[in-house]
Amino acid sequence: MKHWILAGTLSMGALMTATAMAQETTVLKGTEAYGNWEKDAPGVTRLLTPQDLEAANLTESASNSPSTVAKPEGALPKVPEGFKVELVVTGIENPRAIRFAPNGDLFVSDSDPGSVLVYHFADGAAKPASEGVFAEGLNQPYGIAFYPSGDNPEWVYVAESDGLKRFPYKSGDLKASAEPETLFNNIAPEHHWTRDVVFSPDDKTMYYSVGSGSNVGDGTMDPEPEGGVEAWAASHPLGVSWGEEERRAAVLAYDPDGKNERYFGTGLRNCAGMTLQPATGEPWCAVNNVDELGDNVPFEFVTSVKEGAFYGWPWYYIGDNPDPRWTADPREDLADKVTVGDILIQAHSAPLNLVFYNNDAWADYKGDAFIALHGSWNRGQRTGYKIVRAEFDDAGKATGSYEDFVTGFVIDADNVWGRPVGVAVSPDGSLFVSDDGSGSIWRISKE
Fold first, then answer.
1. pLDDT (tens digit, 9 = 90+) per residue, 98-122?
2. In a domain, 104, yes or no
3. Which of 1, 109, 143, 362 could disulfide-link to 159, CB 3.0 to 4.6 Å?
4. Residue 279 belongs to some domain of the structure
5. What is d(CA 323, CA 194) in angstroms, rounded to the nearest whole number?
6. Do the domain assignments include residue 177?
């Protein structure tokens, strides 16, 4: 485990506090890991386990959305010693998921205006040499994938809140050369709208994530499905929700042409971002867990998604912990069938995207994952608003710990200037981060 000194400018008091924490040799565990933005600094490491989860409703449910203010003059995200951070571009209305094409062009989902932007870079440059609007007029575009894999993909897939489109593509295109093909447009877009798309290593399976239409099935699910629970369970894959939540809170699988829909993983309240782990070829999800059970309940998680696995929503969280809002639990049969996520993250941190570092430029980081935490609203003391690094062993298994890597977006208890959303690794090994608070893209590289 590495411990860092802050790079950047801080007040003397904040510098002493943050530096002391960054040099702390102990991994924060249990309630000690229940920090807040004041305790964040590059190098601070946390490890949470299911045994650390406290009971629901020990604290009142907070409504503590931040005020997003203009970036203070001269402010930069804080990164570890030996790294530098540069502003790539700013003034984007709503930059969300970001992905690099094989040729090094950066594609950005500008979700609110319904566009996909593209930026072309000269070798090693932080500022784009040229840019374009690849596509517009889309329905809250988010996930982006290139197909087939390799150096010369023929399609750009764009996941919308209500479906999926693909555009013809050749390397270097800054604007789509033709109208898109709609593969499907039958996904309910309400509530959680961030859809992502990735392909299996052999290009034969397409994964598409769909978040839930509610917090915990409230207003969208009857206490039992029509025909009863037993009949429902017998005719559906493990953990499938009913009512308006059917085909939601899940990772769906398709053929690359959008046909042959099937469930891949269920009980994932909001798999807001997906990627593949190079070491295993498995899809991974960054999952937002339920709200309104108190400051520290339940943990968020980032996880590999196993085919046929059930992750708990809406009846359970972090194993067999029943959500108390289902007063008459209709799915007691699922209590011992909940798969616990691989990496547990402090409650209400809002993980939105992740990327595995598969480049030799930062050799000590190869195989690890970077996760964007968008930040809390349902917590009395603000948490998240940072990029963390999740550690993996040489076999590609998560250790469960995660370390602050990029911080500094929070000004005080009420105000933030930045909110990380997307993470992507460029061909030269730099880490790019989208921030929808300041409407910017940032580049982190070695000094």
1. 999 999 999 999 999 999 999 999 9
2. yes
3. 143
4. yes
5. 24
6. yes
Sheet containing strand 271-276, edge to edge, reads: 271-276, 283-287, 300-304, 343-345
Q: What pLDDT, in 10s, does the model give residues 266-306?
A: 999 999 999 999 999 999 999 999 999 999 999 999 999 99
Instruction: Kindly write down the DSSP assignment for every residue of 80-123, as one continuous string.
Output: ETTEEEEEEE---SSEEEEEE-TTSPEEEEETTTTEEEEEE--T
User: What span, in angstroms and rounded, lies between the C-alpha atoms of 355 and 273?
Assistant: 9
Strand partners, 275: 284
CATH number at residue 188: 2.120.10.30
In contact, 87 and 94? CB cutoff 8 Å? no
What pLDDT digit, counting tens, does each position of 174-222 carry? 999 999 999 999 999 999 999 999 999 999 999 999 999 999 999 999 9
Count of structural domains within the chain: 1
The answer to whether residue 13 scores a pLDDT higher than 70 is no
Tokens found for residue 97: 């998921």
Q: Which domain holds residue 112?
A: 6-446
* Within a domain: 1: no
Token pair in block for residue 195:
């859809």
At residue 424, what is the residue type? A
